[in-house]
Specification:
This protein is α+β, with helices and mostly antiparallel strands. The chain is 15% helix and 38% strand. The strands form 5 sheets. Strands 1, 2, 5, 6, 9, 10, 11, 12, 13, 14 and 15 form an 11-stranded mixed beta sheet that branches. A hairpin with a 6-residue loop joins strand 1 and strand 2. The chain is globular and about 90 Å long. The chain binds zinc ion (2 copies).
């Protein structure tokens, strides 16, 4: 399924020169176009907050109010009495939803008899993005962050020019409750009767403060106020009387803003390279490799598949995991995997020893969430016998998938492999509870050489491919 990502830009001031900078929300490193400083975008808190920018001011509000009155057949304002800006809080919950479903086809013979084919397990996914008011103020019930055509500017802090005027409304629904509400409403939306397994991947809760202007005016018929969406700049509805003041905010624990810091190697201080959405950076000066986790650059060891072939191969990152399963302390070996996945492992492998079974998840950018499965499954099933070196390839694709999400995807792959080869024993009940529980050891970034071949991008040590159009 195609993802429909809204246009969202982060709007900040450069910490060095103060110039305004806009960049896509998914970016992790940028260069200030004014002073050329290299910058890293970090997240000190798991739950981030943003304020949506609004460009309206007293003059444009007056204009919008007059235009609204004309359109609605109201008497024109005699005087603009009061102008207020409220930042109203919304919880936003997004991520990816994956599910496995069992499909059986029926084959019909000429004489009308039908035969059910063996059940097949399919993997499917879609993005979800829901929001709801984080406050129980009655007039907020009709508001929504909505789907917007224009680019939305997300500010980590309240825009300076609005600080005097804006009143930030305190969220009343706390984080845990919000998360619970989000899971509940997702469950209602997506209840899929044929799904035997569902998982949310990379789900993120964000607190979004939305600008709502209140224009209080007087005309021949009396006192009115108008609510104006500060982003779309449209007046939504008018009410008679005076707008009732709402309580002002105070701080809200556990929620923080992104921080923009100099993009330096934590070891030697050299500038690191700018690489859009990438989470991993090689220091050109001291050769250390860094992975961005929250607000920290953590040094990681990477491995690269040795390959003597064509020099025009580019290296693509994968997260490689070993797994602990069945609630035990024992690590999943190839021999155990063979009994669990029966006919799903490559027949050509015959590992005599108890070598450790590894899961492979593509860590490079994909255009749609479903694009990685064939490659992930093929690599994992075939357990490639590759020689690994500890060098970082110079011609490499960006690593954009966080380790945590990759581990969640490896979990989906585990169920996929188990259900996919369950055959008769599990055919009647594809039941998650019957599958041994699994968790993963810290992942290892591993680079594989890949090369374009027609419409495909082929992994060079195994020959497995992914469609080029699915790769960013
Ligand atoms: Zn700058
Ligand atoms: Zn360095």
């Amino acid at each position: 399924m195609e993802s429909t990502r809204p246009n969202e830009d982060i709007k900040v001031n450069c910490p060095q020169c103060g110039s305004p900078i806009n960049f896509p929300e998914s970016y992790r490193s940028i260069r200030c176009p004014y002073c050329s400083k290299v910058l890293l975008i970090t997240s000190p808190n798991r739950v981030l907050k943003f304020y949506l920018n609004t460009e309206l001011n007293a003059r444009s509000i007056k204009y919008i109010t007059e235009r609204y009155c004309k359109r609605e057949g109201l008497a024109l304002p005699k005087s603009m009495e009061k102008l207020a800006l409220y930042y109203v809080p919304f919880w936003r919950f997004r991520g990816l939803q994956y599910w496995l479903k069992v499909r059986t086809d029926t084959y019909e013979f000429e004489d009308g008899t039908r035969l059910e084919t063996e059940a097949k397990v399919q993997i499917d996914s879609k993005h979800f993005d829901i929001n709801f008011p984080a406050s129980e103020i009655p007039w907020m019930r009709d508001l929504s962050l909505g789907i917007r055509a224009q680019t939305i500017e997300l500010c980590p802090d309240l825009p300076v020019k609005l600080r005097e005027l804006a009143e930030v409304i305190k969220p009343e629904i706390v984080m845990d409750t919000a998360r619970e509400m989000a899971y509940n409403s997702l469950g209602r939306l997506s209840r899929n009767p044929s799904a035997c397994y569902e998982e949310l991947i990379g789900e993120k809760l964000t607190l979004v403060y939305f600008p709502l202007w209140v224009s209080q005016f007087l005309n021949n018929s009396g006192n009115f106020y108008l609510l104006i969406d500060g982003v779309s700049e449209q007046a939504s509805s008018h009410f008679e009387g005076e707008f009732k003041e709402v309580m002002e905010s105070d701080s809200f624990e556990g929620v923080g803003s992104i921080k923009i810091v100099p993009h330096h190697c934590p070891h030697c201080g050299a500038d690191l390279t700018i690489d859009g959405e990438s989470l991993a950076f090689l220091c050109q000066n001291c050769d250390r490799f860094w992975y961005l986790e929250g607000s920290q650059l953590r040094q990681v060891e990477v491995t690269t598949a040795k390959f003597d072939g064509s020099i025009d191969s580019k290296y693509f990152p994968f997260w490689r995991f070993e797994a602990i399963f069945n609630g035990e302390r024992s690590i999943l070996t190839f021999q155990q995997a063979k009994t669990l996945f029966t006919n799903k492992l490559s027949l050509l492998i015959d590992e005599p020893t108890d070598s450790i079974f590894k899961f492979y998840i593509p860590a490079f950018g994909l255009k749609n969430p479903g694009a990685c499965w064939t490659l992930a499954t093929n690599l994992t099933r075939s357990q490639p016998d590759i020689e690994l070196s500890e060098t970082v390839p110079s011609h490499r694709a960006s690593c954009t998938l966080p380790e945590e999400e990759a581990a969640q995807l490896a979990g989906v792959l585990w169920y996929y492999l188990i259900f996919g080869c369950a055959g008769h024993s599990l055919r009647k009940s594809f039941n998650r509870d019957e599958v041994p529980d699994i968790h993963f050891r810290p992942g290892r970034l591993t680079y594989f050489p890949m090369k374009e071949d027609g419409i495909y991008l082929c992994e060079q040590t195994t020959g497995f491919a992914i469609q080029k159009k699915g790769v960013i």
